[in-house]
């Protein structure tokens, strides 16, 4: 059966790391790529170079910070959502959704949260709550979904070389870990942890204190699979070699391979159209569920109005 390889890669500046990105694409040939920390405005995104490498792309940039993109080999991703719902005044470019090959792919860059306690940590937790609500709606839609990106959370002490040096970091705080646990409890499958249940697998190595040379890493980049996709997982891993290249990002790409059926073109287009609307209905469903917890009883005429409401160690990301 054919396979679909979906990867996530915090590029840490796409203009600086463009040669490394192109080399990785050529060698590993992923079908779908989620990029984080573009650190460039939309107009400066190197779309022509990426197209020349055989990938279509959509992107959501921001000057100097943040920024996310989704690439698809030999196709143009069909954008379903730009920005995480729940806070219309949030101007940070951290979330993008697209339909690719019958799968809804969500690319996210969750806030770092350092220093904590403080407003940056509060923003991290509020953003995480918005993600949890939206992810529940995506699961309820029944469509195949992958949540991929830099979550900026170390799920357990098994996902870090030594937690003692990071005890005060936002990535290891009980609140951050509890949010990740609640997300998984909805029914999502952590692809890397499922593939390597008893091993320490890392995706990030700090630039300082010889962390790469001593393999002192953290696992903060995750690929979460919806209920129907989890049984179709055939492999997952980390392209660790990328971190060892010259002028490398402090992250390495993580990926999952999914078994797919042979999809005829016209049904694929119809399925893609349904998936793109799923994201919008997911957000609406999440808002209604939230409203229901606040009001009792909820009538059929109920209002649909609801509101949900930088650190280099390089500490991984702002």
What spatial order of strands do you see in the largest sheet? 3-4-2-1-12-11
> What is the H-and-E element order?
EHEHEEEEEHEHEHEEEH
CATH topology: Deoxyribonuclease I, Chain A
CATH superfamily: Endonuclease/exonuclease/phosphatase
> What is the domain total for the residues?
1
Number of helices: 6
- What's the N-to-C terminus distance? 41 Å
As a whole number of angstroms, the C-alpha radius of gyration is: 19 Å
Structural class: alpha+beta
Helix content: 25-40%
Average pLDDT for all residues: 87
Query: Beta fraction of the residues?
Result: 15-25%
Can you describe this structure?
- The longest helix has 30 residues, at 265-294.
- The radius of gyration is 19 Å and the shape is globular.
- The protein has one domain (3-294): Endonuclease/exonuclease/phosphatase (Deoxyribonuclease I, Chain A, 4-Layer Sandwich), CATH 3.60.10.10.
- By secondary structure, the chain is of the alpha+beta class.
- Mean pLDDT is 87; it is low at 262-273 and 283-318.
- Helix 3 packs parallel to helix 4 (174-185) and helix 3 packs across helix 6.
- It has helices spanning 14-28, 47-52, 119-140, 174-185, 191-195, 265-294; strands at 3-10, 32-36, 55-60, 68-73, 78-82, 95-100, 103-109, 145-150, 189-190, 221-225, 233-238, 254-259.
- The strands form two sheets. A six-stranded mixed beta sheet has the order 3-4-2-1-12-11. A six-stranded mixed beta sheet has the order 5-6-7-8-10-9.
- Strand 1, helix 1 (14-28) and strand 2 (32-36) form a beta-alpha-beta unit.
């Amino acid at each position: 059966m054919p396979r679909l390889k979906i990867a996530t890669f915090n590029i840490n500046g796409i203009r600086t790391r463009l040669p490394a990105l192109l080399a990785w694409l050529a060698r590993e040939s992923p079908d779908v790529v989620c990029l984080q920390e573009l650190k460039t405005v939309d107009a400066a995104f190197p779309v022509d170079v990426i197209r020349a490498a055989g990938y279509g792309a959509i992107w959501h940039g921001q000057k100097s910070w943040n920024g996310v993109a989704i690439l698809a080999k030999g196709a143009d991703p069909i954008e379903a959502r730009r920005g995480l719902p729940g806070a219309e005044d949030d101007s940070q470019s951290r979330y993008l959704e697209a339909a690719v090959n019958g799968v809804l792919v969500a690319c996210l860059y969750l806030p770092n949260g350092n220093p904590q306690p403080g407003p940056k940590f509060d923003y991290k937790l509020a953003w995480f709550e918005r993600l949890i609500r939206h992810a529940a709606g995506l699961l309820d839609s029944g469509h195949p979904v992958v949540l991929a990106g830099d979550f900026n959370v170390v799920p357990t002490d098994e996902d870090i070389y030594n937690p003692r040096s990071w005890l005060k970091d936002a990535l290891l705080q009980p609140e951050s870990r509890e949010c990740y646990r609640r997300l998984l409890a909805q029914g999502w499958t952590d692809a890397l942890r499922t593939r390597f249940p008893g091993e320490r697998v890392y995706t990030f190595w700090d630039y300082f204190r010889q962390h790469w040379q001593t393999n002192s890493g953290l696992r903060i980049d995750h690929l979460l699979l919806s209920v129907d996709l989890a049984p179709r997982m055939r492999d997952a891993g980390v392209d660790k070699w990328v971190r060892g290249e010259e002028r490398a990002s402090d992250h390495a790409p993580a990926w999952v391979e999914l078994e797919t059926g042979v999809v005829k073109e016209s049904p694929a287009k119809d399925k893609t159209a349904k998936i793109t609307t799923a994201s919008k209905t997911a957000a609406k469903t999440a808002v209604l569920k939230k409203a229901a917890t606040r009001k009792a009883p909820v009538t059929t005429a109920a209002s649909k109005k609801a509101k949900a409401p930088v650190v280099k160690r390089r500490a991984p990301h702002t």
